[in-house]
Each structure stands twice: as structure tokens, then as C-alpha cells.
Amino acid sequence: MFTIDTHTHIIPKHIPDFTKKFGYGNFIRLDHHQPGRAWMMQGDNRFREIVENCWDPEVRIKDMAEHKADMQVICTIPVMFNYDVKPKDCLEISQFLNDDIAQTVNRYPDKFIGLATVPMQDVDLAVLELERCMKLGFKGVQIGSNVNNINLGEPQFHDFWAAAEKLNAAILVHPWQMMGQEHMTKYWLPWLVGMPAEISRAICSMIFGGIFEKYPNLKVCFAHGGGSFLPTISRIEHGWECRPDLVAIDNEFNPKKYLGKFWVDSHVCDHKMLQYIIDLVGADKVVQGSDYPFPLGEAVPGTLVREAPLSDETKTIIMGTAAKTWLSI
Ligand SMILES: [Zn+2]
Question: What is the distance in A from the centroid of ligand 1 to the CA of 249?
């Protein structure tokens, strides 16, 4: 079974001191405090400890062999999006990160597929960088679930969607800057409550903003099984039915019309939920995604799908075929 893991993160081993360079902010840098281990530092704060599988492609390839993953889609870690800094500085960081990914993909073209990161706070710059990356061989781009709390369905992003559609770029929407995180710092709630809500926010705002109507050939995949969107789709539909004056102001169509128009990854941690999302969007719109190499991801990527009570045909689609369509490879 040919396997593509569509949701994995990577970071360069060495990152310039952008805080020093730009003279402001708390840009992420790495403190390699012992062999194979580094702290991601945000100013003086430890954001997260990572190990060498986060930056070393050869370590990843060994893991992939062990996990029976043929290829990984690699993209940056959302904390590196930097949508809240000066656009030209974000562009510079994005180019640095994208060039690192391009190098890895060029060295191991049969192992890795690249998704870029772009300065979404300036759509013109975002489009320029996306164009550059697609020329470098990237298959698409990863973006956040909101851009400085502006929702993805807003008109200011229309030119970005138009460019992505024209370039046939696959788009991975990843939760970040979780809503309300300042009010729920305990118990890892931004990750457990905020992330699924962020993805539902992204999908709802794109549907109700008419994005899938205006750009019908967009190839968008939402992380974490589409977050809380699919489990609450009937409530969302009910809202559209009972209060069209609030919900259907920019797009007249039932939100269920868009089931099957976008992809979701398989990282839902539960066989019944996996079956449920397959029933809603179709197996050909579910792609294996693990969130490797992070602890909230699948410890052994692909286990949920491999061990699910699904036919071999369905597993083959989710583990690889559906991703080939999404990525146009
Ligand atoms: Zn992720």
C-alpha cells in the first residue's frame, strides 16, 4: 500500500536570530542544548522541546521506513507563520523556511513533498511567494486557520484564493492562534478545545463567505479531520435553515453542499469518528495525516487507518490515492 503522510512538520536545524536582525519581536530561535535535542525559544520562553526528527531528513527517513510511510508532505510549524509581524520581514522568514524545505525535497524527491508558508498578512506578497515556491517544485501551501483573527472567508483573501486556484496549489489549513487561548491556559485547552474549533471556524467562514463558490477548483485540505466542523455539521446546517438572515448573507447554499468539495486528514484518533467523516465527505476526500513528529500526533503514523475496520480498497485510498489527487501528483 503506497502511503503518503500529508500532515508533518519540519524546521531548519539552524535559524538566524531574526529578533536581532529586525530589531523587534520574539522570533523563534533554536537552542540546541544537547545532541539531538533543542528548545524552540520565543524570547526567553521555552515554547516546545523538539528532537532531531524535527529537522534532520535522514532521521525522518529512518522513522518512515519503520512506520511504512513512503512519502511525507513537509511544511513548517505554525508558530513560524509570523502573520503578526511586518509583511516584508515575514516574507524574508518565509523564504528562508521555504528554501530549506526546497533543499530537502530536492535531495530526497522520492521521500518528501513540500508545502510552502507565505505572508498572509499581505496578500500581494503571499501570492508572489506562492508563485516562487510553485516554480521551485512545491505542491502547495500551508496556511493558518485565521490571519491575525481575520477569517479566511473575508474578501481581503480573494486574490490569494484566485492565485492558489490558478497555480493548482494544494492548501493545508492548519489551526493556530487558537481563539480564546488567553482564557484557557490550563490543561492544554488551546490544543484540545481551541484547535478543533479553529478548523470549524475556517471551514464555516470559507463556506459562508462563498469561497468554494467563487473558486470551485480550489484544493483545500483541513487538518485534524476538519476539527469540530464535521461532528457539528447538522447543527451548522440547522443554523443556516433557521436564521438565514444571520448565516446565509453572503452565500445562499446549504453548507452540506460542500461536503466532498474539500479534503480532511485522518487524524481523529477514533475508528467510529473516522468512519463518520468517510460517510460525510467520501473516502477519496480523506487523506492520511499524522501531525508527525509531535506528541499530539499519531505515535506511529497510519496506525488509525491501518487498524480500522475498513476494506483494503478504502485504506489504499486514504493512505495514498486521495493524497495524490489533492496534491496533483
Ligand atoms: Zn500539525
Answer: 32
pLDDT value at residue 79:
95
Domains and CATH numbers, the chain: 80-327 (3.20.20.140)
What is the whole-number distance in angstroms between the Cα of residue 9 and the centre of ligand 1?
6
Q: CB of 183 within 8 A of CB of 129?
A: no
Threshold 0.90, pTM exceeds: yes
CA dihedral angle for residue 247, residue 123, residue 261, residue 317, rounded to 10 degrees = -140
19 touches 29 (CB < 8 A): yes
The residues, ordered by sequence, that sit 6+ positions from 3 with a Cβ below 8 Å of its Cβ are 68, 69, 70, 71, 288, 302, 319, 320
Contact 233, 200 (CB under 8 A): no
Q: What CA–CA distance (Å, rounded) separates 307 from 291?
A: 18
Q: What is the mean pLDDT of residues 180-190?
A: 96
Query: If you measure from the C-alpha of residue 22 to the centroid of ligand 1, how many angstroms do you get, rounded to a whole number?
Result: 27
